[in-house]
Amino acid sequence: MTVAADDGQAGSGALTKQDFEALARFRFGIRRYLRFSEETVRSHGLTPQQYQLLLALKGFPGRDWATVRELADRLQLRHHSVVELVNRAQGQGLVERVPHPDDARAVRVQLTADGEQILGRLSALHRDELRRMDSTLALPTWHDEPVTSDSDGA
Prior knowledge:
Blueprint: E1 2-3, E2 15-16, H1 17-43, H2 48-58, E3 65-66, H3 68-75, H4 79-91, E4 95-99, E5 107-111, H5 113-132
Antiparallel strand pairs: 1-2, 3-5, 4-5
Helix pairs in contact: 1-5, 2-5, 3-4
């Protein structure tokens, strides 16, 4: 049985039962990983948002710091929410603000030694969990390819 997507934005046609199972399995894997992450970071004294902040800083392309505006984009949060998140993380000694050398209006947010240490510990745990979940988080294989018939003997 196939079900047509009818949202005006559908890509390549009807979804099969296998497609729905693949989407559900992938969604389950994402949720299981997120739950693992939330419980793990909380057991280490951080909020999930603080871990995401530390990871966004250490994982920022090409450098180990970012501006609040860049962090807002990476975290998909509003500017004022990131300011509050940075304030709390700074209060815990996880990040620090450093004047930006090229723009007096901006500051760099970067990890402290304590932030680096806890991020390293937590990220190793996350990497190990992702390795365990490898098949659960594999991208779904879609079954919407057009069926071809070779009945003409060609």
